[in-house]
């Protein structure tokens, strides 16, 4: 009986010792945290930035999910004119006073030019609409998603100048759109 009481006291003592010392400690970093952040993009009101993907050629795909529906559509696009795999040490900052009204889709960038690829509700060449979620059994449209989430560019040739952009539309049920893209020297 006495050994059981001793065991309980030792267990309590061990638990108190362990609870007083941290199990994990953060390691210090030699790099200082930057004091400033550079604003490179602004989205329409209520929009969530999604789908950020930089492909092998430095194309930066980025979406605006569920923006203010009264004025904007959910948008899938790419920032052209910049190789995002080879950025300069510093990039220009977007002026905070820029207005979403400055541009029809509300997405402003400080570096390169944002090109809309498609928006929710746009007609697709093979039928259906961007963001359209369709029933598996009869093909009827269930809803139009305003939530373009993940992007993946799959090149169809060696230099990546042509390929498919797949976008996952986050909803219940969800969907995936496929758009064929061909880059030209004026847009990339």
What's the layout of helices and strands?
Elements: H1 2-20, E1 41-42, E2 48-54, E3 60-65, E4 75-80, E5 108-109, E6 113-119, E7 132-134, E8 141-144, E9 148-155, E10 162-169, E11 175-182
Quick summary of this structure?
The protein has 188 residues and is mainly beta.
Mind explaining what this structure looks like?
The protein is mainly beta. The protein has one domain (41-182). Helix content is 10%, strand content 32%. It is built from 1 helix and 11 strands. A 4-stranded antiparallel β-sheet has the order 2-3-4-6, with no helix packed on it. A 3-stranded antiparallel β-sheet has the order 9-10-11, with no helix packed on it. Strand 2 (48-54) and strand 3 (60-65) form a beta hairpin. The longest helix is centred in the first third of the chain and has 19 residues, at 2-20.
For this entry, give a set of tags.
mainly beta; 188 residues; 3-stranded antiparallel sheet
- Measured as a percent range, the helix fraction is 10-25%
SSE series: HEEEEEEEEEEE
How many beta-strand segments?
Answer: 11
Low-pLDDT runs: none
General shape: extended
How many helices?
1
The percentage of residues in β strands lies in 25-35%
Which structural class is indicated by helix and strand composition? mainly beta
| Strand order within the widest beta sheet | 2-3-4-6
- CA radius of gyration is 25 Å
Structurally, the number of domains stands at 1
Distance between the termini: 81 Å
Largest sheet: 4 strands, antiparallel
User: Overall mean pLDDT score?
Assistant: 85
């Amino acid at each position: 009986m006495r050994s059981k009481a001793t065991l309980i006291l030792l267990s309590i003592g061990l638990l108190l010792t362990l609870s007083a010392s941290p199990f994990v400690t953060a390691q210090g970093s030699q790099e200082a945290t930057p004091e400033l952040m550079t604003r490179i993009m602004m989205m329409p009101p209520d929009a969530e930035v999604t789908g950020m993907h930089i492909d092998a050629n430095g194309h930066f795909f980025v979406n605006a999910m569920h923006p203010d529906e009264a004025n904007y559509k959910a948008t899938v696009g790419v920032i052209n004119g910049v190789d995002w795999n080879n950025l300069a040490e510093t990039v220009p900052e977007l002026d905070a006073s820029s207005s979403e009204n400055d541009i029809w889709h509300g997405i402003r960038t400080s570096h390169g030019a944002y090109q809309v690829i498609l928006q929710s509700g746009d007609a697709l060449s093979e039928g259906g609409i961007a963001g359209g979620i369709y029933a598996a059994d009869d093909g009827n449209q269930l809803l139009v998603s305003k939530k373009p989430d993940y992007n993946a560019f799959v090149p169809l040739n060696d230099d990546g100048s042509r390929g498919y952009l797949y976008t996952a539309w986050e909803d219940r049920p969800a969907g995936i759109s496929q758009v064929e893209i061909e880059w030209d020297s004026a847009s990339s």
